[in-house]
Amino acid sequence: MHLLLSVGVLWALAVLAERLGFAPPFLVPLGALAYGAFALYGLRFGLRHALLLLGLLAPWFPWAAFLVPLAFALLFGRRMGEREQAAFYGWALVWPALALLLVWQVFPTFYAFYLSLFEKVNFLRPAAFAGLENYQILLRDPLFWRALGNTFWYVLFTVPTGLLLATAIAILLNTGVAFQGFYRTLYFLPYITALTAAAAVWRWIYHPEFGFLNWLLGTPGLDWLNTPTGVFALLLRPLGLEPQGFWAGPSLAFVAVMAMSVWHFLGYQVVILLAGLQAIPKEYYEAAELDGASFWQQHRLITWPLLSPTTFFLFTLGIIGAFQVFTQVYVLTPTGGVLQDTLTLAFYLYNKGFRDSDFSYASAIAMVTFLIILVLTLVQRRILERRVNYEI
Hints:
It is a single chain. By secondary structure, the protein is mostly helical. It folds into two domains: 2-115, no CATH class; 139-387, MetI-like fold (Orthogonal Bundle). Helices cover 67% and strands 0% of the residues. The chain contains 17 helices and no strands. α7 (180-192) crosses α11. It is globular. The mean pLDDT is 84.
């Protein structure tokens, strides 16, 4: 029964997705075949199980595939075994939440891969099947490699910098400073501020003529968001060195975007790290102090190892979020920078899908980004998680 309920829910979701144009049409007859097979199998337990065949009305009434098994269990549930009842009602309670996850996460992923196999899908005309042609074009696309390189720099700069700053601030806030709740709220406020609004404010801060940053640094006229020169090239220029291409580093405009991103997400990391610090028993620090350990020794030998589960969690989420960066880049540099120096994978995906109306190529970019994130996450778990200490 619980297998029939699961198949019914998946089929109902497939019918709804097909009606909205978010799923290939072959899923509907495939779901009918699976549901019908399970329902017919139930006839061996009694003719009353023929009522389950009413779920085949799902192409016209999608939720029949879910409601019919549920109603059947409510009517004849007492005749089921205790174990079968527990499994069925457990799945019945889990499926509404699981269905949301499937609708907004799992199904779109498979549908994106399906779209990537066609040629220039724009939902206005039939698209020809292209196989892996979009992926072959992607590998030869200089803009894709430009976006990937920029995203790499974004990950490399923002994730470690944000984590180190947040750890230092959290340690300072955990030392018994007065008005700790006020400071915690103060640091968390940027994170709950709408990202578009925060980016718009930072765009004013970076303004070459009226910006606060140029006034503060005494550099009037410096256009932070339209300077494509790499920061490494700028720093090494006084030494007579000027690396080119990727080795010139991220542009000054992209570094400005990174600074805004670190500021926005810093509060979230501080609050999470502060919770991790407060879970460490104070007796460990008292014993270390009695043994003559210095401030740095206490945090190197106690804080850092015992805080490793929290830092590993934030590091993993940070990399996943960094590969999906879009909003602040779009608001601060709507064109992707002067020489596409702030173009990221998510921004390039958006341009291909919604500017060029090429959803098949955009889906290919999405699938490659997904695979990169998946591989990096698995590598992190393989290499870094073994260093995590879960015992306090």
